[in-house]
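#struct-pred

JT: dropping the chains for the assembly here, can someone run the whole complex?
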Amino acid sequence: MTYTAWIILTACLVGITCGLIGVFLILRKTAMMADAISHTVLLGIVIAFLITREVSGPAMLIGGIAAGLLTAFLVQSLHALNVQQDAAIGIVFTTLFAIGVILISTSVGNVHLDVQHALMGEITFIPWNTVTLPVLGTIPQATLMLMIVLLIVLIFLTAFYKEWKITTFDPSLAASLGIPVMLMHYVFMSLVSITTVASFDAVGAIMVVAMLITPAASSYLWTDRLIVMLILSPLFGVLAAILGYMIAAWLDTSISGSMAFATGIIFLISFLFAPKHGLLFRKMYRTE
Amino acid sequence: MEPFALEVEDLSASYRKNTVLHDINVKVRTGSLVGIIGPNGAGKSTFLKTILELHPALTGKVRFFGKPLKEVKKRIGYVPQRGSVDWDFPTDALDVVTMGLYGKIGLFKRPGRKDVEKAMEALRKVGMEAYAKRQISQLSGGQQQRVFLARALVQEADMYFMDEPLAGVDAATEKAIMTILEELKQAGKTVLVVHHDLQTVEDYFDHVLFLNKTIIAYGKTADTFTEKNIVKAYGGKIFWTKGEEARVVHSPF
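RK: done, full complex below.
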């Protein structure tokens, strides 16, 4: 495959995975947690690097999950101790992220990891860092990791589809039916973490939030059905990836930045023109 | 059937560091239709949530049909307050009712045709079959409450806990809900309802539980729903009318 094709494929995988996870982030009203985890996984990745001394997929995923769970756990604990939820998120993620930044600039130094890279990603480098596999052939490491994570996300979402639905809509009822609501919460936070880690190389910590939240928020405006949302949101993610790449190529600018910008455009169009929930339709409906 | 559907011993619970419930002791006979009443902030919702282990208890022992909750979960139905969920959730009425069956369907399985039929049947019982495919935010408050009730009915539980099912509903819905609660009672089920309207207590419930942080009084409505207990539970001045006669209870303070 060509250089461009790999980049677009990788970006599309980010769009699909983030789009799927994003739907539940929006519906569970935990969008802020995505922002938090997207920063704290940096700490997980740095620590994984310090232990294994290499930037490898599995170690990064495990480090990311650990950091994500730690974030979720600390936020939950602070909240239980009467700290407001949003304040708890703000305190936990900035502190953990800061530790990550300090570690990077002191003990990791000159390797592949740097703050700029972690925040913005560098999708243009992805095709250079490849692995060779029996069936798939030579494939960029980041792309492979995204494929695996997408598979994991798909398995978890389909296997426990009705459990995700009920714990999202009515956690009290779910708990009274014997569904482990808290466990589901932590599993979900783990899925957010691995999605973030896998998307890290491609789009970085800031842009991954755009990919997680904006396509899902856009899809929410187009439909009243969860299953349709779960189809539309990844589609919007893919659209943003392709559109973003085209904008970047045209203006010769940051690819991840352009993709995040594209999600914003998709949201704006949805917000204005979506049937039923769009601004124009609601205006028309009111004046009739 | 066991004589007591619910036995609570020495239950207490706190909410944000304040003790909201203490020294709760009560035994509810199987087949009772109980109205739980008390002023705002008396801990009525917390009481339901604590016995159902949705809120942590500080002390106490709770038994349902003589057994701990874990062993009888499938025999118990819970209807949370309508306001506790986001009605903009992308789903329809039928789907919400089907959720009542998720505990029974089991892991890795999807609701089958039989489950959907059951949910439809429950919607019919509450007079909502015409709205099965309606997005839930498009339903009125009363209709949403009926959907919640239908969701509890599909569980085919032996005991129901309902948190303010009559709050903010229209008169027709109130009547429909009370007819169903009466039917549940006739079928030998035990129903505990958090209720806010003192005027209807005597018509609706055969037992009444006065709650204000602890149990003020519990017993048959005829013996227990007295001015003395109302004053004790509500503390302040309270005014309500019953038919032609108007009653005013003055604060003892």
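JT: nice. Chain B touches chain A through 32 residues (CB under 8 Å). The radius of gyration of chain B is 18 Å.
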